[in-house]
Amino acid sequence: MKIEITGIELAFDGVEFGLVGSYEKIAGRMRGAVDPSHRLNAGIVNLDKAPRNAARQVEYEVDFCLLKPADPRRGNGRLFYDVLNRGMKLALSGLNDAPASNDPKSAADAGNGFLMRQGYAVLWSAWQGDVAAGEGRMLARLPIGGEPGINRDEFIFNHSHNPARAPLSYPAASLDSSRASLSVRQRERDPRAALPAASWRYLSERQIEITRPPEFDAGAIYEFIYPARDPIVMGLGLAAIRDVVSFFRYDTADEEGRKNPLAAGVAHAYAFGMSQSGRLLRDWLWQGFNQDLNGRRVFDGVMPCLAGSRKTFTNFAFAQPGRFSCQHEDHLTPGDQFPFSYATRSDPPSGRTDGILARCAASNTTPKIMQIDSSGEFWQGRASLVTADEAGRDLELPADVRVYAFAGTQHGGRFATGIFPFCEHPGNPVDMNAGYRALLVAMDEWVSNAVEPPPSSYPRSSEGTLAAHHTLAFPRIPGVSYAAMLNELCVVDYSRQPPQPDSGRKYKVMVPAVDEDGNELAGVRLPEVAVPIGTHTGWNPRRQGFASGDLALLGFFLPFARTAAERQSSGDPRRSLEERYASHEAYVAAIRRAAQALCEARLLLPEDAERSVEAAMRRAKYFGAP
Length: 626
Known about the structure:
single chain, 626 residues, alpha+beta, four-stranded antiparallel sheet, 25 strands, 18% helix, globular
């Protein structure tokens, strides 16, 4: 491994973070090379077909960025690795409540300073080889390896422009349109309608133009299957994470003698990832990359967040790591098949035996796991399969695994709402960041001092809090239609294009049961969910003109009526605020009690309990205050 530092600067305008002091930012590139014949690299698809250097190794280069205490003696000796999401840094938004930024440098970019006040060294390194340059995204330069093949791209435009242009994931191996096919369907479950050759054309080897049929709306699914070339050895990005983190954790200098900026200063290393990054961590563990080339454990603790039961479409020929299976979009994207749970078990639908931690267990490199999911992961990410089997029966979690489902939350938290303008209902404002902070503190105690973390908290079949989606007793709220729909799963044959689902080998995917308000019964209930002023969900239908009725990735929030008279006039079955709380002050007091209970359970930090109370005080408008 070789390190090239391209810049060192004082971070966050020199702000001091308590006893830890100021931070510095180090940016640069890591250059690595892997041996295709090494047993720990043997599973990387097409690695044996990639170009090799004089030492018969395959080279790669990735960007890195490191935030560390300017005085390393004042840090906590912990490395916090944030898995990039499509080249983007997320940890400072997810744990520090900071604005999104790929170039954190100002005081504002530190947000509330949580990770810095804790004394973490925060590391990012690129891993995804198809990220487009720009907007500060971090890039991985991975080789091309493999023969031309058939690729499948799916497009949902979510606009009405016609004709529409669509980028191809890989360059076309031929511009002969007779060798490609284009189809359209309004919804995933609809039959494909083949479009004539005259309805589309190649603009280049990387882009097509489609003349859209008028009978299909903005949410229709277009599927393009074509001969492609130049597959990226995308699985090499998994090895890059392993090797880069191992270098920063264990090595004093690179192979040419350049000093490791964290030399001998890392006692423990933790990985954190949200959404794509959380799915990547599950995939990374499953494929055995938590063992470095010297047999050492890379991460002591891993926090896959917003992942559900899925992995990623990464270690494949013609991989597309940015895609993932949803109920409407990209439903047949690879990376969602067995195994789902952390324990090794036999799976009747697939006929296979495996587990996410099987390879870690075999190499004695199993980390502590905290999987954290929103409600949305049950509807779109089949989160029930992490803790329940193919028939919906509860599974026993391994001793090193905890699972936390945050009731009444949406995928991506409140910040994701603006990304999906085609939802039927307003997005869900509940934020999970406070939960991430509390659980990271618990993770560190678990790893460092063997202090047991809070017990897992999620819906269970045996307790009646996990339900079949078609039996869910969701209330009849005016203006809301419960479609009884989720991202279903069966065994899929990916050897053909398009992939072929086997509906005879299906999994029972379940969702959290709800109360009379439509709020979930089980899981970690943050104060605004435990003491509600409305209904919070993890699902949200697409609106008219955008494949209406199918599910978007978000949840929604619908407030209760203020008075009994208002709810009765609208036909709302949910009790009004005046029927629940004597006053706004009484509501705030209830929030305070709920926050204190979470603090006692170590699921909320005292500073976040105070933030919850302050937020409750700002909700006076719901109670009729000006």
